[in-house]
UniProtKB/TrEMBL annotation:
Pfam family, one: Glycos_transf_2
Coiled coil spans: none
Enzyme Commission number, as recorded: 2.4.-.-
Domain spans labelled Glycosyltransferase 2-like: 8-118
Keyword Endoplasmic reticulum assigned: no
Database matches in InterPro entries: Glyco_trans_2-like, Nucleotide-diphossugar_trans
Keywords: Glycosyltransferase, Transferase
Lineage top rank: taxon: Bacteria
UniProt-recorded Gene Ontology molecular function terms: glycosyltransferase activity
Name the record gives this protein: Glycosyltransferase family A protein
UniProt keyword ATP-binding, yes or no: no
Length: 232
């Protein structure tokens, strides 16, 4: 019997043959029962050995592939639309997570229906997985490590596919206009810093920051704190 999962994990990947295996192993080693979650991996037209790396996990993931590169937000939206779970969480292909990541985030939302999403703190790690610092997810928010109720994501309108940087800020600004993201003070996510992070392209980051301001009047860096104040 094909059991409907509770949680859908969305993993977008493009030319990450070096890291994707570590990411998926951490997701397969969860304390949440394997029948209760699915891992949807969207290969955005990789040209390296990423497809081969994914084939090693073919029995354990839901593979989707864009024949040509469509960009990160488009891949994320494809994964979310394909998701069967009522809860959605994004994990980037060069990151990895604690074994209790899915279990604890899902349990929190299940037991706290007034919260629409929950973000966990994270550990910033280097390319050798040495911990650089522990980070408060509300003070320095990242795109991942946030579990959403899928219905609210769909209502919000998913990612704006024209934002190839700061796509998570743009989504979060719209999401927090109606919904609440709680903070879980547990560092369950591992955010890897390396030379090939897309956030290293400062010109592109600034371009899309200006687009955020043009669209919403803010750049998203203060949106979370403003939303939290409105909930108090």
């Amino acid at each position: 019997m094909n059991v409907k999962p509770l949680v859908s994990v969305i993993v977008p990947v493009f030319n990450q043959e070096r890291y994707i295996g570590r990411c998926l192993r951490s997701l397969l080693n969860q304390t949440l029962h394997s029948e209760q979650y699915e891992i949807i991996v969207i290969d955005d037209g990789s040209t390296d050995r990423t497809p081969y790396a994914l084939e090693l996990f073919h029995d354990a993931i839901v593979p989707l592939r864009n024949e040509r590169n469509q960009g990160l937000p488009a891949s994320l939206n494809r994964g979310i639309r394909a998701a069967r779970g009522d809860f959605i969480v994004r994990v980037d292909s060069d990151d990895y997570v604690n074994a209790n990541f899915l279990n604890i985030l899902h349990f929190f939302l299940d037991q706290n229906p007034r919260h629409d999403a929950v973000a966990c703190d994270y550990l910033l790690v280097d390319d050798h997985e040495q911990v650089l610092e522990r980070v408060n997810c509300m003070d320095e928010p990242i795109a991942c490590g946030i579990m959403f109720r899928k219905a609210h994501l769909m209502e919000t309108g998913l990612y704006d596919e024209s934002f190839h940087r700061h796509e998570e800020r743009e989504l979060r600004i719209r999401f927090e206009q109606k919904h609440h993201i709680a903070r879980l003070e547990l560092p369950l996510y591992r955010y890897r810093r390396h030379d090939h992070n897309i956030t290293n392209d400062l010109d592109a980051m600034e371009l899309h920051r200006q687009r955020l301001i043009s669209k919403h009047g803010v750049d998203g860096s203060t949106a979370s704190s403003a939303a939290r104040r409105s909930m108090q």
